[in-house]
Amino acid sequence: xxxxxxxxxxxxxxxxxxxxxxxxxxxxxxxxxxxxxxxxxxxxxxxxxxxxxxxxxxxxxxxxxxxxxxxxxxxxxxxxxxxxxxxxxxxxxxxxxxxxxxxxxxxxxxxxxxxxxxxxxxxxxxxxxxxxxxxxxxxxxxxxxxxxxxxxxxxxxxxxxxxxxxxxxxxxxxxxxxxxxxxxxxxxxxxxxxxxxxxxxxxxxxxxxxxxxxxxxxxxxxxxxxxxxxxxxxxxxxxxxxxxxxxxxxxxxxxxxxx
Length: 259
Description:
Blueprint: E1 7-13, E2 16-21, H1 32-46, E3 53-57, E4 62-64, H2 77-83, H3 86-93, E5 99-103, E6 106-108, H4 110-117, E7 120-124, E8 128-130, H5 144-152, H6 154-163, E9 167-168, H7 169-175, E10 180-182, H8 187-199, H9 203-215, H10 221-234, H11 239-250
Parallel strand pairs: 2-3, 3-5, 4-6, 5-7, 6-8, 7-10
Antiparallel strand pairs: 1-2, 8-9
Helix pairs in contact: 1-3, 5-6, 9-10
């Protein structure tokens, strides 16, 4: 996994996969090539049974400042339909392994949407979130109007989307967009520590639990409860369920096999 030009892929700690957006000269703008590489990296980590949590990050100045506008400025509607760029976003969304976004600096437009594609967000105290597409004559297209509204509510989402204003990390925390805000110098370590905590749990249970939480956004309460119950029952067919409960009874630490 070393033949990337827009991202860096590495393992900072056991069982943790990390993806770094690496186009600092353009504040990690999300080019089509970047999205292609992100899909490859997410799918490779997702298929690796040794990887139990993924951390996505940029640098201290920017997580990602948006889409690469130079690739869209002259596009027509037909161009955009034929490009089908959002199919790549859908593939990232289908990642089964838990994903944490570590955000410092700008997370704007597509960058904010990419962070919201992740399951949790650890933000540095310098992070700024926004959907400024209105300022260039368009609107969010990779989930900004939908995921942001579900995260922070209609009123704040409307203000962010219709004015293009940014909100601070602290405002994002108060609104429920991020999990925690930490000093910029430790934000990545904090994300890795959270990833280690997630990775220490039974991996099949973590995947099905993630799937069940996400189901809450696409179904009724009744449908979600039925989905949750089926996943709960399904885990009783795993070796990890037997190990976890035996370890609890025997007062020892479980040894997960992911089976």
